[in-house]
Specification:
Helix content is 38%, strand content 14%. The protein is α/β, with parallel strands linked by helices and 407 residues long. It folds into two domains: 7-15 and 255-336 and 346-404, Aspartate Aminotransferase, domain 1; 27-250, Aspartate Aminotransferase, domain 2 (3-Layer(aba) Sandwich), CATH 3.40.640.10. Strand 2, helix 4 (98-105) and strand 3 form a beta-alpha-beta unit. The chain starts with 26 loop residues before the first helix and ends with a helix.
Length: 407
């Protein structure tokens, strides 16, 4: 097969038509937003209560607590469980850095564990490798377009009296073995920022089945609520506006339809990629009832110049293409040496995170999953672009400079 000239070298790109804009507004969302605007109460009112109730029903849990973002949701859980100085919280090397910051802001120490090579997610094996008598909480992150294998993680945590808080920022609505992501452990946290499948611009949520955790977290969030017997402590602030809650109600109504549409196209893309020997979409775990695709993420073999591949694929499709998250042990946003509040804190790595580092440097390729939903030709274009770029990336030498570029 003759190699085509790549777009980055002056050739014709696979995708020459601009992508449609991602407009998630509809008439029901606009009506809900106007109703919130006309209401007397603009904060922590009927729309917030209604969304919390509907989200808990949707996920199959008892309580949902709206917050300003997922980081706040995690902090509220940790504070409600009195996690603080002297405690350790285990988090995966590949996750958003605010997870580590939430732990440090509570005075506890974030401990990084490595991830599995096929998913980029924490497993019971990597969790156990950094377990200690100081461990209070473990936070598995459901990453991009796959899920952590939760039952072994939950089993190991129960045997060691450790809380499990699922980071579901990428996976609202994902289900496995009839359980929603966020309901396997003690609690789950969700993000509703602009990029997420369920969005109101900015927002987050804590979900749990534990009454005391919910009541204490709600007390801490509301600031002006009266204390209960179990929650006499300094309050924080983390309430969401009625406008954001109104938008979320509309978004939740349409979420299942959008998730199914993206899932169908993503699984179609998986079938296309199965015919290629050097590239694999991160796996769909057995028993998965519904998989979310916040990002489409696949792993290339290490004979591929992944930095060149990302840059070339981006040029062919006209979309942003990147690597995984920067491993937390290398992430400069967690460098606390210039922050007086956290100068004595650090993200600790008790074992090398070699797998996470190799995924980041040499293997991961990802782009926003919503592109699959805004154009029915997306799968064919992506497949054609990968087919075009792959032969060039195989024969392009990988330098150390390449390994740090276009990530």
């Amino acid at each position: 097969m003759t190699k085509q000239t790549l777009a980055i070298k002056g050739g014709q790109p696979i995708r020459s038509i601009p992508w449609s804009s991602r407009n998630r507004s509809d008439e029901s969302t606009r009506c809900a937003l106007m109703a919130a605007l006309d209401a007397v109460n603009w904060s922590n009112g009927d729309f917030a209560r209604r969304f919390e109730r509907r989200l808990s029903e949707f996920l199959g849990c008892r309580f949902a607590l709206l917050t300003t973002n997922a980081t706040t949701a995690l902090k509220l859980y940790l504070l409600a469980r009195d996690v603080g100085p002297g405690d350790e919280v285990i988090i995966p090397a590949l996750t958003f850095p605010s997870i580590a910051m939430a732990v440090m802001e509570c005075g506890a120490t974030p401990i990084i564990c490595d991830v599995e090579a096929n998913t980029g997610c924490m497993s019971a094996r990597t969790f156990e490798a950094v377990l200690s008598k100081k461990t209070r909480v473990v936070i598995p992150t459901h990453l991009y377009c796959t899920l952590c294998d939760m039952p072994p993680i939950v089993d190991l945590a129960k045997r060691n009296n450790i809380d499990v808080v699922e980071d579901c920022a990428h996976s609202p609505g994902a289900r496995r073995n009839n359980y929603s992501a966020g309901t396997f452990g003690n609690a789950g946290i969700f993000s509703f920022n602009q990029k997420k499948p369920l969005s109101c611009g900015e927002g987050g949520c804590l979900v749990t089945n534990q009454t005391e955790v919910y009541e204490t977290a709600r007390y801490l969030r509301d600031f002006d609520s009266p204390p209960t017997k179990s929650s006499v402590r300094i309050q924080r602030m983390g309430k969401i506006s009625e406008f954001q809650a109104a938008v979320l109600i509309g978004q939740l109504d349409s979420l299942p339809k959008h998730l199914r549409a993206i899932e169908e196209r993503a699984e179609n893309l998986r079938e296309h990629l199965n015919y290629m020997t050097d590239i694999t979409l991160v796996p769909r775990l057995p028993g998965t009832d519904l998989q979310t695709f916040y990002n489409i993420c696949f792993m290339v073999n290490e004979n591929i110049n992944v930095a060149f591949f990302r840059k070339a694929l981006s040029a062919e499709l006209g979309i942003p293409v990147s690597s995984s998250y920067v491993p937390l042990n290398q992430n400069q946003s967690l460098n606390c040496t210039r922050d007086r509040q956290f100068i004595n804190y650090a993200v600790e790595s008790k074992v090398p995170c070699c797998t996470a580092e190799r995924i980041y440097r040499y293997r991961a390729v990802r782009f926003p999953g919503y592109y699959l939903n805004i154009d029915p030709t997306a799968v064919d274009d992506i497949d054609s672009a990968i087919t075009k770029v792959l032969p060039h990336a195989k024969q392009t030498q990988m330098s150390e400079e390449d390994a740090h570029a276009y990530r």
